[in-house]
Design brief:
18 strands; five-stranded antiparallel sheet; Immunoglobulin-like; Protein phosphatase 2C domain-containing protein; PPM-type-like_dom_sf; 2 domains; Phosphatase 2c, domain 1
Length: 416
């Protein structure tokens, strides 16, 4: 009777091992360079124990406590040997074969072909900046998008930052139109020419005098303040018109159409007064300017956005029709006691991170954005606004984030 029982036990052990060998076990797919974990559910096989998984080290993953985890190196199909035993026969190890598919990192499928440094309108594929802005700090980065890098094309975005006479500072950002053959030069000329226009002590003194009238409510009537406001907008208008003339002249001299230089333009001209920070703004196109208050309880969009109603066709500084009566609505005057961040960006950042214009004045969306900058993202890339000695490089690394379908140039300016 004893031998018969042993035979029955052996048969049961054999059967359970064979059932485990034959069960269709599918490991979920992994992705190269992304954290992966898979736990073996062994409830149906209480007597089967997995001892080891051979060949797993080749993938960059490890096995412990019935769980595969880690970050796989490269995309491939890996043949894995599951080494297992039966709890009533621990000296006999069997093997079950499974496959692990590691998908390619989408970033690796994009080529990064350098642009032509010998081109007459050559510009670097990425640039970064950090410095002072009034009594605050500023960091700005501009990075060529994957779609341009894949074809060896130029970065069409651009920016310029300048400290101006009398304590004023200016940041301008432009996004050259993808359909315009000389967009990269259009965006460069736009930011350089608007900043240089305001690099005038005489003009800034006039703007400053009018600004003090506007915000010194105790000493001036509404009529006088209204006139001062008009004077400021007239000065800003002259700067914007100057940009148009520079682009128009460049097109004519080089036998381009001005459409070949199509570019958006936003700028913020700022100074700290005794009554607060005054931020003078302008925008044409789909790039936002936002100011966030100290405790993140309020965020304001400081410019008109050309999105939605034009069915994807944005507006450009190179379009004569923007210089009509409506242009006044494109200028903004904002005075705040203080702020945590002043942010300007192109749609390469705005589209993947905010998606719709309505979210640009939603505090939760901005909290999520700064959490992302703080390292709460798939790449674990962090921008440190406190230990900021190399903040521009940190921000440049952060802008390499992956967002499916969003591969445009990315420019981001943060005053903090």
């Amino acid at each position: 009777m004893g031998d018969q029982t042993k035979d029955m036990e052996k048969a049961a052990i054999y059967r359970e091992k064979e059932e485990f060998k034959e069960v269709h076990l599918v490991l979920k797919n992994a992705s190269s360079k992304q954290f992966y974990e898979f736990s073996f559910e062994m409830d149906d096989f209480p007597n089967i124990k997995i001892k080891n998984i051979a060949n797993l080290h080749e993938t960059g993953l490890t096995f412990e406590n019935n769980r595969i985890s880690g970050i796989p190196y490269t995309s491939s199909v890996h043949d894995l040997d599951i080494e297992f035993y039966h709890t009533h026969d621990q000296n006999s190890t069997e093997i079950k074969k499974v496959h692990l598919f590691v998908n390619a990192d989408p970033k690796d499928l994009w080529k990064n072909i350098p642009s032509d440094t010998n081109d007459i309108y050559d510009k670097p594929d990425e640039i970064s900046y950090q410095g002072k802005f009034s009594d605050k700090k500023i960091t700005v980065v501009s990075k060529r998008g994957r779609s341009h890098a894949h074809e060896g094309k130029f970065r069409d975005d651009d920016f310029a930052v300048n400290e101006l006479p009398g304590g004023w500072s200016i940041i301008s950002v432009a996004d050259g139109a993808g359909s315009a053959v000389m967009a990269r030069e259009g965006s460069r000329l736009a930011v350089v020419s608007i900043n240089s226009f305001f690099n005038s002590g005489k003009m800034l003194t006039e703007i400053e005098q009018n600004t003090e009238i506007v915000y010194n409510t105790s000493e001036s009537s509404e009529e006088i303040r209204s006139k001062a406001r008009e004077n400021i907008i007239r000065s800003l208008y002259k700067g914007v018109l100057h940009v148009y003339h520079v682009l128009d002249k460049t097109a004519t001299e080089n036998s381009f159409s001005i459409k070949d230089l199509h570019t958006t333009l936003i700028f913020g001209l700022m100074k700290k007064f005794y009554f607060g920070y005054v931020i003078l703004t302008f925008g044409v196109g789909d790039c936002p300017i936002n100011v966030i208050n100290r405790d993140f309880s309020e965020v304001k969009l400081l410019n008109t956005m050309d999105v939605g109603e034009f069915g994807g066709g944005t507006r450009f500084i190179t379009m004569k029709e923007i210089f009509n009566d409506d242009i006044v609505s494109r200028f903004g005057m904002t005075c705040v006691n203080d702020f945590s961040y002043l942010v300007l960006m192109t749609d390469g950042i705005y589209d993947p991170k905010f998606m719709t214009e309505s979210k640009l004045e939603d505090t939760d969306s901005w909290k999520a954005f700064f959490n992302d900058l703080d390292g709460n993202n798939d790449d674990r890339t962090k921008v440190d606004f406190i230990n900021d000695t190399d903040i521009d490089q940190q921000l440049l690394t952060w802008t390499d984030f992956w967002s499916r379908g969003n591969h445009d140039d990315r420019t981001l300016a943060i005053i903090y």
